[in-house]
């Protein structure tokens, strides 16, 4: 066999060894990656292939032209093998980084929804149980003004029994409007539209005056006067019995 043929055969053998190393490295990484669990990211760093140079330590065998040529070709093949290993390792590292990014995003999404659910539960606990349909009906009815009793508005004369707070001078104008309207209601049985509008305006003015003095009066007096004014406006729309 000629020297050139020997060089080609040697180069082919080294290429085969390098490719076997790449395949073995890829298979080893695949088996480790599929082992289960979420192990921490470990970068792939392959070991470069080593080619025996024919020497030991500082001593080397005598060189020939053919041997030097084979050594040069071996170095080229070694460089190609190392390049293939490095390229494979870079691809493995990129794949690992992508998998870690996917896991990080999944953890972020899971944490976000867990935090939102905890927040929802905390707010629900602060609000307490939701009102039932019966509770809603009862609350709606409690907000509707109630008609005044005959003891509060005389159905025959229309005379109004004013609460103590509404007897103050500041409410004199509103009292005059209410008294005139309820006297007409007692006489004719019902109020006209323009008279009802006057009652509504007087009620709004009285409520505004009450709100202005809310800090100067007791809570019970304020609540009683407010409900009385609202009931006057509500009763003015009802027919006199």
Note down, in words, how this protein is organized.
Residues 55-60 have low confidence and may be disordered. The protein is mainly α and 241 residues long. Strands 1-2 form a two-stranded antiparallel sheet. It contains six helices and two strands; from the N terminus they run αββααααα. It has helices spanning 3-33, 65-127, 133-143, 172-188, 193-212, 219-235, and strands at 55-56, 59-60. It is rod-shaped. It has two domains: 3-54 and 62-126; 141-235. Helix 1 (3-33) runs parallel beside helix 2 (65-127). Helix content is 66%, strand content 2%.
Mean pLDDT: 78
Q: Helices and strands, in N-to-C order?
A: HEEHHHHH
The counted number of beta strands is: 2
- In helices, the fraction of residues equals 55-70%
- Name the poorly predicted regions: 55-60
Largest sheet, if any? 2 strands, antiparallel
Number of separate helices: 6
Strand content: under 5%
Count the domains: 2
Major β-sheet strand ordering: 1-2
Q: Please report the distance between the alpha carbons of the first and last residues.
A: 134 Å
Looking at how many chains there are and whether they match, the oligomeric state comes to single chain
Radius of gyration: 49 Å
How would you summarize what this structure contains?
About 65% of the residues lie in helices and about 0% in strands.
């Amino acid at each position: 066999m000629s020297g050139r043929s020997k060089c080609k055969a040697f180069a082919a053998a080294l290429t085969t060894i390098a490719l076997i190393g790449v395949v073995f490295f890829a298979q080893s990484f695949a088996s480790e990656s599929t082992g289960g669990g979420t192990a921490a990211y470990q970068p792939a760093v392959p070991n470069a292939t080593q080619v025996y140079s024919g020497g030991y330590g500082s001593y080397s065998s005598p060189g020939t032209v053919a041997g030097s040529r084979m050594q040069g070709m071996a170095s080229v093949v070694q460089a190609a093998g190392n390049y293939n290993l490095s390229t494979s390792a870079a691809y493995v590292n990129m794949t690992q980084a992508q998998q870690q990014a996917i896991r990080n995003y999944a953890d972020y999404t899971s944490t976000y929804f867990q935090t939102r659910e905890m927040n929802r539960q905390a707010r629900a606990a602060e609000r307490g149980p939701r009102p039932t349909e019966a509770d809603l009906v009862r609350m709606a009815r409690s907000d509707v003004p109630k008609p005044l009793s005959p003891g509060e508005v005389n159905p025959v004369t229309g005379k109004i029994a004013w609460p103590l707070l509404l007897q103050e001078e500041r409410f004199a104008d509103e009292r005059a409007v209410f008294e005139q309207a309820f006297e007409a209601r007692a006489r004719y049985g019902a109020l006209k539209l323009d008279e009802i509008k006057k009652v509504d305006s007087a009620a709004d003015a009285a409520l505004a005056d009450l709100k202005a003095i809310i800090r100067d009066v007791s809570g019970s007096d304020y609540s009683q006067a407010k409900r009385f004014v609202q009931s006057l406006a509500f009763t003015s729309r009802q027919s006199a019995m």
